[in-house]
Amino acid sequence: MKLAGSPTRNQTLAAARQLARRSDVQYAHPVYIRRPASVPNDKLYPLMWHADLARLPGAWDLTHGSNKVVVAVVDTGIKRNHPDFGDRILPGYDFVSRASDGGDGDGRDDDPNDPGTLASTSSGQHGTHVAGIIGALGNNGQGIAGIDWRCKILPVRALGVREGQGTDPDIADAIRWAAGLDVAGVPRNPNPAKIINLSFSGAGAAQVLTDAVRAAMNAGSLVVAAAGNDGSDANTYFPGAIPGVFAVAASDPQGKLAQYSNYGDIVGILAPGGEMGMTIPFESRDEPAGVWSLVYDTDKQQYGYRAYEGTSQAAPVVAGVAALMLSVYPDMKPDDVIRVIKETADTSRACVEQCGPGMIDASKAIARAREMSPNPPPPAGDGQLKYSQACSADRQCESRVCRLTQAVDARICTRFCSFDRDCPTDSFCSIGVCTPTNIAIQTNRKGEPVVVIGGCALIERSRSKRRSRSTGLSTLALVLLSLFFLAARRRR
Ligand SMILES: [Ca+2]
Ligand SMILES: [Ca+2]
To answer: pTM for the full model?
Structure first.
């Protein structure tokens, strides 16, 4: 069977039907060509329901982040040696003044390690969990994927080991330091953070806290904060209620305002925060539907992963998306980051109680930031895709050539050619670009000749006849790709 030129989809389907009617064809089986939708290979990724809700895969098509972006996590400190952090953690600082709160035998020092304790009321490795949501290594085959796979995390310890509590003076100094401002008695932070995440909340305003947050914002930092977990109006919960702070409410896995989440007109945006009362299936068991991230098990002295729920988990989702935005537009102003996240939000998930315009949509937010950027970087992939891998933009390919393959609605990384000899092994030159041949004739267990294309495409048999079951239009379209490979071969 030979088709001239590039066939249309209908021609493809007609040819496939004609092929299926042949008595010497047992069945046509697809060569599935799948395009990686920037879904990382991390083992616990199936637990990351929040990735789909916040539309992270579409964002990862555009960027995986930049190591030039610094995100401060003002929290309980960190376990920097968690293997899913890699080398992402900057030196940081410990601002907890009282040794009894710090649990590390001293007051302020340059080690932001979260020592934790065995008590159930300890830090819970809260800071490590929050930092992991923002910046755990993505696509490293391990644990979870952070939202930004490359940014640097600045751990600034201001909450101690007694229920993870901290005092306003310590928190205020930590925020100033994170932004690169002077704090008495402490060396200046050499890595000022463009984004400061504050995953804590408490009732009552304090001037020392307000002043520090304002100073950080004046220094150019975006301040993202949890709206609070009391299921009430967020306007009396600080630092979220400080004007200019991007306060984040939390949703459950269905995208609805979580029952514990604060709400109200000071909330800037809704983001996934989890609901531990719900479950998600994972490897034939059910796991709690909190937001999964990195922890350290103080009891077993092991690094691991755990689900937590709260606006503490929702805020770092927003901080992570903001970091991705800065990776494509480094000079984007904090007010513009907030405006774009609000403007691109999924308004179908707006809530009656008021939680900003709706659910954060990372994919649209990053796309908008790229449009605004005077010098946007190439889309993610950065030329890393090899020959014959599926692609969506020229710059993703090592060869910088991403082209539609014959008769199939899929693009692969390829290269220009004039002759077959210009192409890699198992490829031929067709219409100016290399195309994988992926074709072979093998013998099956019964000794029958089998034409195999790309693994299993077309099985010829001589004795009995069986018809294929319909496997969908894409299947049939792929069959025609096989036909084209055959036709091209015959022409040679
Ligand atoms: Ca200390
Ligand atoms: Ca990982």
So the answer is: 0.74
Closest-approaching ligand to the CA atom of 40: 2
Residue 33 in this model has a pLDDT that exceeds 70? no
Centre of ligand 2 to C-alpha 279, Å, is: 21
Q: Would you state the pLDDT for residue 285?
A: 97
Q: What is the distance in A from the centroid of ligand 1 to the CA of 98?
A: 8
Q: What confidence score (pLDDT) does residue 385 get?
A: 73
Q: How far apart are CA 248 and CA 341, in angstroms?
A: 12
Q: Please give the pLDDT value at position 25.
A: 80
Residues 6+ apart with CB under 8 A from 267: 227, 234, 240, 247, 248, 249, 354, 355, 356
pLDDT of 415 > 60? The answer is: yes
CA of 108 from ligand 1 middle (Å) equals 5
Catalytically active residues, by annotation: 75, 126, 312
Question: DSSP per residue over 197-227, as a string?
Answer: EE---EES--HHHHHHHHHHHHTT-EEEEE-
* CA of residue 226 to ligand 1 center, whole Å: 25
Q: What is the mean pLDDT of residues 51-80?
A: 96
Q: Who surrounds ion ligand 2 at CB < 5 A? A: 42, 84, 136-137, 140, 142-143
